[in-house]
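Hi everyone,

Forwarding the result from last night's run.
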Amino acid sequence: MRPSDVLVPKDKANAISPLRCPICDGSLEQVMIRDLGGITADINWQLHAGHCPEHGWFQCEVIATPPREIFPVDRPFGSTRKVVIDGVDLFAFATVWNDVPLAERLKKIDPFDRTYWKVRHQVTSRS
């Protein structure tokens, strides 16, 4: 067995993810998933990133549960950037996962269920 036989690729390009643009709810291009591995208590962490042709790059963390926030970023796995919508500076978009009752959040759910990845309030930008 060679060492390369046991290595797991860190990044998956052209991946499939429930992540969508939090501004227009459009499909994202160039979707990438970065496996961060089992960081705590054998829970796998991932970063999902994708590009909206109109609104730029976005990413979120998946930690055995759906993401709590989706962040606008300057590039995949990069720094958070500011998005201005109707004169309001935004650095993150909260998802509906934050509003799920505690009893439901404690149940075993599919962390990739698209239902939980939607933003709390759909916003629209004026271009």
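The first helix runs from residue 102 to 105.

Cheers,
N.
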